[in-house]
Design a protein that fits this description.
24 helices; about 15% strand; Immunoglobulin-like; alpha/beta; binds alpha-D-glucopyranose; five-stranded parallel β-sheet; about 750 residues; single chain; Rossmann fold
């Protein structure tokens, strides 16, 4: 963390312990009636016609009676001001409303989906994006975003993997903190500050079978080692709020899980912000089997520490009765309202509750925002394969390319490019790949032949002939294939099959069969199974859903104005049967070392090991992997010392400097994301075969080299041991500085 980040983090954390805010909170709390307190704990969704409680016609009346503390999904300064005026002027205590919205990868300017942004491995970039999103969102009357989504996800079947930063807690923690710093800025009280909301607390990414809203079983050590760190990082960066998750964690729904919400969040971490339930989740405690009716559900959620009820309407209808009957202590209400008021005071809502109405969503996106969106998209792309065609790598497309066939259902569909939770950007804001390539080729006397070829789903091959014909006439065929962002990725979008949907695979094979060089661009919100393509297509790039500047970013990358630098933050499987699949897995007692897993076992030595008989264990493309338009060499990893002391490291004294020489041995200047991994053996509990403990983006010109150095301290080396203590232990540590999670020449460290 840089000094500037540290100072912002400290500033951001200061809101939660500001004596002036605390005094104002207590003074107001003491004036409030029980009904007014319950009102603050109630949030309604206005602006979407779904879910219990919406579709009402009496919101204004409820607000005027002080029965609503927060509203989500209402946007536009005029709209929020009108509702705010009712709250401020007509209620007895003039408590302002808090307006929330899911701004998770941009508001007016839609950036790549978060999984794509994570592939940039660039927290500074993500912080800038969050800052811009905050400036845009606050101009629309929003002061609270339900972001960052920091759920670690190891299962590509889960559609919400699209919303997070992938499978690694170290990278996920760095990115979580970056979003919070960006959203909240130098002070929550700034009018362009958005209160962040770390979600979904917790373990939501581990839902069984990758099926959304399903249950999750996570042992305490795994919870603390993998799923909790990004939440703690978001809190340490000053996050004003958390959102509890939908799923039942170890048989206890996260909406009423006092272990996570109280023991961890309040008692251990001393989090002083507010916790909001997920949408209608308090009512879901009934089908989850832990509440027989709404009163029981409301009581359990309030007792566990959910401060605000998003949209179930049960706090509003049940809490006062529960307190009056003695079934719920007044202190549970007071604690919740205290935290809600703390955030509202910290945001300055009592001092400036209204939003300037001089801008609106209709304004065109400024060039500076488009430039940032383009940079973000370019840095999100991951080059998966780039084979040699006619003597040189197919990408970047060189000057000899005069005609390009652009084929596929995602080549010219602007609405798809904004991905799930796309904010206010619409198709008219997007420059598609087709538009960008037409513009570029026409400037250089080239020709674009466009043919959609197939739909995203369905089996019709009526477009195949036109597509094959276009390919035959062109020097190269670019295939824009992938998922339908409107329903196949994001929330409630679990998939049991990870292949290209519909008959896109058949289209791809038909185009490859023409013999023309093919570039496959994969638009997806998750890892897909791309095994056939990896064997038959010379160039492949994962582009996720790249946002409003999708086209220009892909064109500049395809033609080499910029070199791709993205690295995967999720493992791409060979088959869906490998899921959940992640790099930081434990070894087994029967590792299939030195066995050819590309074929079935032929003897007992090959069979009785931890393997599939019909597929390899390894991912098709591993965590941390991504190619460039140049080549980087890595020297062996070196250490400042071959030994270290566990006790010194536990006392935060002593460290180990790790370095390697990275050289650009190719022909063009490019960025490389250098990664630091460790493996600890001889420990009291098994540790993963690799764990990311550092990363750095460097830029090297051809022939240039740079010694990249990291420092390992107790912070990176400690883990939750057999006694559930988070400590450094004596261990044999293997350490790699590498380009991805499967490479590098390691060094050995002995911790005594
Ligand atoms: C949704 C999502 C959550 C989102 C909330 C408000 O169901 O689970 O991530 O913030 O409701 O839209």
């Amino acid at each position: 963390m840089t000094l500037a980040q540290f100072s912002i983090a400290q500033t951001s954390l200061s809101w939660s312990k500001d004596p002036q805010i605390e005094a104002r909170v207590e003074k107001l709390l003491n004036q409030m009636t029980l009904a007014e307190k319950v009102g603050q704990m109630t949030q309604f969704s206005i602006g979407t016609p779904t879910g219990p409680g919406t579709g009402r016609s009496d919101y204004k009346e409820m607000v005027a009676r002080g029965e609503v503390g927060s509203i989500l999904n209402m946007t536009g300064a005029a709209q929020t001001n009108a509702m705010q005026k009712i709250a401020v002027e007509q209620t007895r205590l003039h408590i302002p409303l808090l307006f929330g919205l899911d701004i998770i990868h941009g508001y007016r300017t839609s950036f790549p989906i978060p999984l794509g942004l994570s592939a940039s491995w660039d927290p500074e970039l993500i912080e800038r994006i969050a800052r811009l999103a905050a400036q845009e969102g606050t101009r629309a009357g929003i002061r609270w975003t339900f972001s960052p989504m920091v759920d670690i996800a190891r299962d590509a079947r889960w559609g919400r993997i699209a919303e997070g930063a992938g499978e690694d807690p170290y990278l996920g923690s760095a990115i979580a903190a970056a979003y919070v710093r960006g959203y909240q800025g130098s002070s929550l009280s700034n009018v362009d500050s958005l209160a962040a909301c770390a979600k979904h607390f917790t373990g939501y990414g581990a839902v069984e079978g990758g099926r959304d809203y399903n249950t999750a079983e996570i042992p305490d050590r795994l919870l603390r080692q993998v799923y909790l760190p990004p939440f703690e990082a978001a809190m340490d960066a000053g996050a004003a709020s958390f959102m509890s998750a939908f799923e039942a964690l170890n048989e206890v729904p996260s909406t009423e899980n006092s272990f996570t919400l109280k023991t961890v969040l309040r008692d251990e971490w001393n989090f002083r912000g507010l916790v909001v339930s997920d949408y209608g989740a308090i009512a879901e405690l009934i089908p989850q089997g832990v509440a027989l009716d709404g009163a029981a559900a409301a009581r359990k959620a309030a007792l566990a520490g959910v401060d605000m009820d998003m949209e179930s309407n049960l706090y509003r209808t049940e809490l006062a009765k529960l307190v009056e009957s003695g079934a719920l202590p007044q202190s549970a209400i007071d604690d919740a309202v205290r935290r809600i008021l703390r955030v509202k005071f910290a945001l300055g809502l009592f001092d400036h509750p209204y939003t300037a109405e001089n801008t609106d969503d209709a304004q065109p996106i400024p060039a500076s925002s488009l430039e940032l969106a383009r940079t973000a998209a370019e840095q999100s792309f991951v080059l998966l394969k780039n084979a040699t065609v006619k003597g040189s790598p197919l990408l970047p497309l060189n000057g000899g390319i005069k005609s390009v066939a652009l084929i596929g259902p995602l080549a010219d569909d602007g609405a798809q490019m904004v991905g799930s939770w796309g904010g206010k950007s619409t198709a008219k804001d997007v420059t598609t790949l087709r538009a960008a390539l037409e513009a570029r080729l026409s400037q250089h006397g080239g020709r674009l032949l466009y043919a959609k070829g197939a739909e995203l789903t369905g089996t019709s091959e009526s477009g195949f002939a036109e597509a094959v014909n276009a390919a035959r006439q062109a020097d190269v065929a670019i295939l824009a294939l992938g998922e339908d962002a409107t329903w196949m990725t994001g929330e409630a979008a679990s998939r049991a099959h990870l292949d290209l949907p519909g008959n896109q695979q058949q289209l791809l094979e038909a185009i490859v069969a023409t013999g023309k060089p093919v570039v496959l661009l994969v638009f997806s919100g998750r890892p897909l199974v791309l095994k056939w393509a990896a064997q038959h297509v010379p160039a492949m790039m994962e582009v996720w859903f790249p946002g409003v500047q999708a086209g220009p970013a892909m064109a500049s990358t395809l033609f080499g104005d910029v070199a791709p630098s993205g690295k995967l933050t999720t493992s791409f499987p060979r088959a869906v049967g490998q899921e959940p699949l992640y790099y930081n897995a434990l070894n087994t007692g029967r590792p299939p070392e030195k066995i050819d897993l590309t074929r079935p076992p032929t003897n007992s030595d090959e069979k009785y090991v931890s393997r599939y008989v019909d597929e390899q264990n390894s991912p098709l493309f591993p965590f941390g992997f991504g190619l460039s338009y140049t080549t980087f060499s890595y020297s062996p990893t070196t250490l400042s010392t071959p030994t270290a002391s566990a006790s010194a490291l536990n006392n935060d004294s002593g460290n180990i400097r790790v370095s390697a020489e990275v050289k650009n041995i190719g022909t063009r200047k490019a960025d490389e994301i250098v990664q630091l991994y460790i493996r600890q053996r001889g420990t009291s509990v098994a540790r993963p075969v690799r764990e990311l403990k550092g990363f750095r983006r460097i830029t090297l010109s051809p022939g240039q080299s740079q010694r990249v150095e990291f420092t390992l301290t107790g912070k990176e080396l400690r883990f939750w041991n057999i006694d559930m203590k988070n400590l450094v232990e004596p261990a044999q540590v293997t350490i790699w500085i590498a380009p991805d999670s499967t490479s590098g020449t390691p060094a050995e460290l002995t911790i005594r």
